[in-house]
Amino acid sequence: MDVAEEEEALRLRPHHLLCDRFLPLELVVRSEEFARAVHEIEELTRPERDTVVVLVEGPDRLCAHCPDLRNGRCESAAGDEEKVRRWDARILEGLGVSYGTGMKVREWLSLIGEKAPFAFCESRCPWRTVCGVFG
Q1: Quick check: helix, strand or coil at residue 25?
Q2: What DSSP string describes 99-120?
Q3: At how many degrees (to 10) do helices 105-115 and 81-95 cross?
Q4: What is the pLDDT along the chain (135 residues), one digit of tens a residue?
Q5: C-alpha to C-alpha distances, 52 to 27, 89, 96, nearest whole angstrom
Q6: Which of 8, 80, 91, 117 could form a disulfide with 14 if both were Cys (CB 3.0 to 4.6 A apart)?
Q7: Is the backbone peptide bond immediately before 59 cis, with ω within 30 degrees of 0?
Q8: Which positions ≥6 away from 132 have C-beta within 8 Å?
Q9: 3-class secondary structure, 121
């Protein structure tokens, strides 16, 4: 990844890259502003786009629009910042990458297609019954 790509890269938490593409939108929408941000990220992460996505630790561009983000931390009833960080770490492990890894969307989608679903998705994810990764 060159400097220009890195500067323009979309920075996402691992679970936003993986999970948001497989969950029904009504499960992830928390406000109108958040819904707009979800749609924007969906557009930027379409397979035909050349968007570079870099995985980041902690709140990302989507989190910035979430009403559950308070004092720079996720305070969702479904999982606080510590739980989210553990989930993100499991996703990194499942994909075999680390924070800071950047690739074009189609490369991420290829990797996700090869590796997902992960064993922990099948056994521990609270959304597994509605997640499209199993379909």
Answers
A1: helix
A2: TT-EEEHHHHHHHHHHHPSPHH
A3: 80
A4: 554 555 689 999 999 999 888 887 666 667 888 889 988 999 999 999 999 999 999 999 999 999 999 999 999 888 899 999 999 999 999 999 999 999 999 999 999 999 999 998 889 888 888 888 877
A5: 26, 20, 18
A6: 91
A7: no
A8: 21, 22, 23, 24
A9: helix
